[in-house]
Amino acid sequence: MGVSAPTVAYPKLADFMCFAIYSTNLAYGRAYRPILEELGVTYTQWIAIVALWEEDNQTVGSLGEKLFLESNTLTPILKKLETLGFLRRGRDPKDERQVIISLTDAGRALREKGAQRTLVKASGLNQDEFRALQRSITTLRDNLVRHATNDNENSL
Length: 156
Prior knowledge:
By secondary structure, the protein is mainly alpha-helical. It has helices spanning 17-39, 43-54, 60-67, 71-83, 105-114, 120-123, 127-154, and strands at 58-59, 87-92, 95-103. It contains seven helices and three strands; from the N terminus they run H-H-E-H-H-E-E-H-H-H.
């Protein structure tokens, strides 16, 4: 009689935090879809506009940092928003290498049409639970960004 090897308990997909966040992001996208379709924008376009409400007239680089997007990903989004009439792109007169993004009146008007719509109720969490979860996820994200940055610096 042979001795059987011990069974290794590998984690299941549902055990991965990264999958929980990824799939939650997909669910958020589906839940937001009717709101965003009514506004005529995609989710990524929407968060760019929200970031510009907070700080208008900023560079593509600055906006990209806030949104965790590289300029080669962000630029087509901004071009589309410009075509839709929600923002303007222009060279910074102080530094021609920089592109400044600013909202148009139509971009600012989207705030009135959609900013007050949230998915707090749809989440099934009360306001305090929702805020606590959002803070925890933000802390997780910041820790992971810091970790990835430190790993990249240590590998040089």
